[in-house]
Amino acid sequence: YDRPLLATSADGVGTKVAIAQALDKHDTIGYDLVGMLVDDLVVCGAEPLFLTDYIATGRVVPERIAAIVQGIAEACVEAGCALIGGETAEHPGLLGPDEYDVAGSTTGVVEADRLLGAQRVRPGDVVIAMEASGLHSNGYSLVRHVLLSDAGAGWSLDRDVPELGRPLGEELLVPTRVYAKACLALAAETETHAMSHVTGGGLAANLERVVPAEVSITIDRSTWTPQPIFDLVRQVGSVPQPDLEQTLNCGVGMVALVAPCDADRAIEVLAGRGVRSWVAGETLPATGDHAGTV
Fold it and tell me: For the whole model, what pTM was predicted?
């Protein structure tokens, strides 16, 4: 490296772990953890180097811990980083015997002259949306309240939902997509100016993080149809569309802002990495109250 910059990210999975615990299926939650960590990291162009995890549980059950770590390790391979260690802590009295929570941190590096962010974004850039695998790992407090709680629909996780084509629990446990390698390839092979990981706050709030004051972004919602789970939450819970969009990713897990000359190439690069993407909008010169907005 000529001038390496270190980047780091720390995160957890949130209340999605309640679904894994209820289904007694623990080998996918690691993908959610790694996805939340490395996909936050790569938005600045940093390559994730290594990751450490932290598992807190009411009672250490070796087989359960092994399944969790297995998922983390497999997702690290997919992300191209090393799982170099971690901590498992037993918290009896604070957590129930079968309860646990997972968190972690990751570190990466990027050349200073390849750092992505708002400083590179210009009017005329194209918004490339990358398809989400599902809910990912955000908004589960809302989803659980709407679909599972007695105050909501009160559905069971083994309920077959025709709109989903599979049991509800299976849908809610779909792992977070790990975009890291695809995004790094995108940054290396196209003129990518910024990226945004769509997590809590939804598409608009996360995109605003990479919008300079002199730029606004227009998104065309007609360019994609969110997966059925999003409309199911909206209908069953009578959730207003603005609230839904402020809480869930609504089918878009990652966004890149690229130079217009590279829009087609960006879609090709991502497709080659197994990520479906499309042109979802554009950046415009900001005017008046619309400065730095989506």
Answer: 0.95
